[in-house]
Structure formats: structure tokens, C-alpha cells
Amino acid sequence: xxxxxxxxxxxxxxxVICPIICKLIPNKAVPETVLLLAAGALAGPHLLNIVHVxxxxxxxxxxxxxxxxxxxxxxxxxxSLTGAxxxxxxxxxxxxxxxxxxxxxxWPSFSVFSVDGMAVAIALTxxxxxxxxxxxxxxxxxxxxxxxxxxxxxxWGELLPVLAMxxxxxxxxKWETMLILLAFIAIxxxxxxxxxxxxxxxxxxxxxxxxxxxxxxxxxVRTVNLLLIGLTAISALFxxxxxxGAFAAGFIMRxxxxxxxxxxxxxHSAMAYGFFIPLFFVMSGAKIDVTAIAANPExxxxxxxxxLFVRALPIFVSLSLGKTSRDMTVxxxxxxxxxxxxxxxxxxxxxxxxVNAGAMDQGTASVLVAAGGITVFIMPLxxxxxxxxxxxxxxxxxxxxxxxxxxxARILAEHRRHERELHRQLxxxxxxxxxxxxxxxxxxxxxxxxxxxxxxxxxxxGK
Length: 463
Known about the structure:
Elements: H1 2-24, H2 32-43, H3 55-75, H4 78-82, H5 84-105, H6 115-123, H7 129-138, H8 145-168, H9 174-201, H10 204-211, H11 219-237, H12 242-256, H13 262-286, H14 290-295, H15 297-321, H16 330-340, H17 345-356, H18 362-390, H19 394-403, H20 408-432, H21 437-446
Helix pairs in contact: 1-2, 1-13, 2-13, 3-7, 3-12, 3-13, 5-6, 5-8, 5-15, 6-8, 6-17, 8-16, 9-12, 11-12, 15-16, 15-18, 16-18, 17-18, 19-20
Organism: Adlercreutzia caecimuris
Keywords: Antiport, Ion transport, Membrane, Transmembrane, Transmembrane helix, Transport
Transmembrane segments: 6-26, 33-53, 59-77, 89-107, 113-136, 175-194, 226-257, 269-288, 300-322, 334-359, 365-385
């Protein structure tokens, strides 16, 4: 008990310090997740040995992973799965998995027909959408064209690896796994249907839950927690990975409240990002064997390079060939590809399965998890570099023309594409605010110079 409490106190201290350090770094170049992982590795049993991996801390870490995938599943809209971008994202994922399969076949250290080889193949195809969402929101990409493409590819890059884990990493016969998976899906459908019917009928239980949503009972929060923990428990009972149950809980939440519930979202974000998710990343770092990484740096570099080859390259090619995306500039396509190559939670999950099955040693798992942690730092950094080239201004265009006077047509064409992207972003932001483009045009007519910080019809928040 004392060991667990001391470990939790140190984890809480790390969770407080990391955002402060993040703030002090210019341009927030290092995501908070990277600092949490690094701090966990430093404090863990392989270095300072002040954070201990016990049954209690591991359980809380699993809950953090569950909350991460709950929020990721909740952010996924049906449109991102069934729209043109979503279909392209699904096809691209299967292409990346085929490439990953061939890579592992050619990799002498792993066998693609064993748990360790299949775990590596799945890890090479993943996108850490749950980890990416806070970064995308912070950088103002949600609702933009780049953000939409990231969600389309990232959704399948998180959902399909979860299903692949369930089907391909199980030690049971495939037909048994399929039956268990179908049984789990049936339970999830019941879990989604019952509350929906209760809402439609408007019975006393539904009214009680809604009326006590903001009282000490916090019935909505407790109901979602029941959904999350219940489905993860059923996943564990069925010997499925808990990630599947958490993801299903997020889907069900989105189905039940398709238009969102800001109050509920705020409460669960506070629970998740205030305690459970930071704890998950710190504990993931604590499991990293730094000496194993130092002993095998080639594997670290190779795995990151393979992530770029297996995941980023097919996404770039897909964007270049897609009818609705081929007009994107090269920097825009690179930005999407780099963001979608950010990988970590699934790598943690698949390596844990492989280690528990005795198919992968902890040293190799540590290297792969460390590589995933590095992608959380380096891929958004590369994406921000390419995004800056998208956000070039007129002054830069003039400078380029002065330096290359014979390339006027090409330079102007690139900057016209940039202007169209800004226009699309503006329209997306206006839709979020419930305005039309004509509203802004009328507003600029009433405000000389187009400067009117608060429109006449604005509410108290200035919206």
C-alpha cells in the first residue's frame, strides 16, 4: 500500500510538472506526452526506481488506456468512416497492413506467423488518434481540410489495428475468436440500444438520470463510467484486449449523443486528462528498459524508418491519387502523412500482448515502445515544419518571385492554393460558430477596414 501511494504521489507530481516544462519550451515543440513518457522512464524501475510497476498502478494505467480510447472512439463520427475520405482511409490501411506483412516476412528477427511478428506488423500500421486529438485542437487543425483528412486516415489507423489485435494476436482458434467477437458486438449493441430506447420512451429512469446530471449524484458521468468499465471488464472476461471495450464505449457514446454534450465532455476530459491518461503515459514510460534501448539503437532507428515507409508513404500516395484530395499541395499531403504516423498506445498494447504470451522479450518491447514515443515528438514536429510552408504569406511570395523571376507562374499558383486553403478553413470555422460567409461579408461592410472585434448581434461571449 505504501509503495503504491508513493508511486502515485510521484506520478501526480510528474503530471503537474510536465505541462509547465512544455509551456517553457519555445513553440511547444515537445508534446506533453513525450515528457510524461521520458519522466516515467527516468523514475521507473530501470533507472531511479521511485515509481514501481505493481498490480494497483498497472490497473490504474489500464484505466488510463481505456479512457484514452473512450475519448478517441467518441471523437469518431460515422461520416469519417463512410464518407469519401473515410473509404480512402480504410483502403489505405489495408495497403499499409499488406506492406507491413511483407516487411515482417523479410525481417529475420521476427516470424510473421507468430505473435511477435504479427504484433510488429500491426504496430507499423497504427495511428495514435487519441494522442493526436489534443495536439490537433491546440494547433487549430480541427475542422480544417488537413484536420478532416487526418481524422479519416487516423480513425481507421486506430480502429482496424484494434480489430486486428483481437483476431490475429489471440492464441485461440480463429473461429472461437470470431464467435467471441460476435458475442461482444451483440452485448455492445444491447448497451447502445437500451439507453436509446429509454430516451425515446422518456421513462422515469431516463428523466432521473438527466435531472441528476449536475447534482452530487452525477448520473451521466456515472452511467458513462459504467459503460466504459463494464465493456472493458467484458473484454477481459472474453480474453479480448480492453482497448476493444473502451473503443466500443466511445462509439456508443457518440451514437447516444450525436450532437455532443459539452458539459459531459468537459467532466470526462477532466477525469481522463487530469489523472488517468497522464498516469498511463508515465507508467508506459516506467516499463521502458533504457539499457535495452542503448544496447539496440539500430532497432529503434529502423522501426521509426519503417513507420515512415509503411504508414506515411502510402498515405501520401493515397492523397496524391484521390479524386477529392489530389488538389492538396505537397506540404499539405506531407502534413497529413506525418501526423498519421504518430503511434504509441497500440504499440504499447500489442507489445504487452506479445510479452505476456512469451513471444517477445521485454527489451525488444521497450525499444518498440520508445520508438512509438519518439514518433509522438518527431512526427508532429515534422508536420509543423511542412504546415509552415503551407501557411506562407504574400510577402514570402514576393520574395520568392524576386529570387526566381522566371518561376512567377508556379509561385503564384502555389500561393493561390494556399489562399483557397485559408478560405476553406474560414468557412469551417464559421460553420462551427453558426455563421455564413455572407454574414462576415455584411459585417465587414458595417465595420470600416473590416475590423469589428465584436459583431452587433454577438452574445455575451462575443461569438
